Automatic annotation (TrEMBL):
<keyword id="KW-0489">Methyltransferase</keyword>
<dbReference type="GO" id="GO:0008168">
    <property type="term" value="F:methyltransferase activity"/>
</dbReference>
<dbReference type="InterPro" id="IPR051419">
    <property type="entry name" value="Lys/N-term_MeTrsfase_sf"/>
</dbReference>
<dbReference type="GO" id="GO:0032259">
    <property type="term" value="P:methylation"/>
</dbReference>
<dbReference type="InterPro" id="IPR029063">
    <property type="entry name" value="SAM-dependent_MTases_sf"/>
</dbReference>
<comment type="similarity">
    <text>Belongs to the methyltransferase superfamily.</text>
</comment>
<keyword id="KW-0808">Transferase</keyword>
<protein>
    <submittedName>
        <fullName>S-adenosyl-L-methionine-dependent methyltransferase</fullName>
    </submittedName>
</protein>
Amino acid sequence: MPDFDKQSYWHQRFESETAFEWLIPSTTFMPILDAFLEKLPESDANILHLGFGTSDLQTHLRTRGFDNITNVDYEPLAIERGRHLEKAAFGDVKMRYITADATHLDAVSDISFQKYHLVIDKSTADAISCAGDDAVLAMAQGIHRSLADGGVWISVSYSAFRYDIPQLPFDVEVISKIPTAKARATDPDIYHYCYLLRPKPKA
Ligand SMILES: C[S@@+](CC[C@H](N)C(=O)[O-])C[C@H]1O[C@@H](n2cnc3c(N)ncnc32)[C@H](O)[C@@H]1O
């Protein structure tokens, strides 16, 4: 299995990859997110998008009216791709792009001084989980500290067990099970999971 938790893996991959969607396309994800986006004031909503890679999700969010978005990836080539994609789509760059490790969000002053109404990751926790549950827990703890009152984390994963971590500071709910494509009708049902993570009260 590739080293999905290693930056070197993503650096090598993004040298040639300019656009790729893990698990589900943004056109599938946006209708799920919409129930949460519609509760947020477009101008004020502070959104954190972790591990955006070469996805176009952030341009869908901006099209929907949100541009106070901080897109984070630890691979600088993703930052380059993201800025380029936004400029090509809108003619300017309004969103923020930060090179940072999602398992050490506290170390990033641009993030640790902010409070987010919505944190989104699509398969970033999956990549991080290759370093073990402690790495996912570190990501979760950083998100927990960064959330505004009433803020939530929405995460898409291939795993039905992604957040079965005893010390996780979130209440976890599956809000959508997205069926994967079958090569044959007789293939087993396989799903991707969209999680809603609500912070447990801070100790
Ligand atoms: C499986 S890809 C998902 C990319 C994108 N969200 C999508 O759905 O297509 C995982 C992404 O997370 C990034 N990543 C992995 N570990 C990270 C970490 N510790 N901190 C920040 N980004 C990380 C990788 O560089 C990659 O862009």
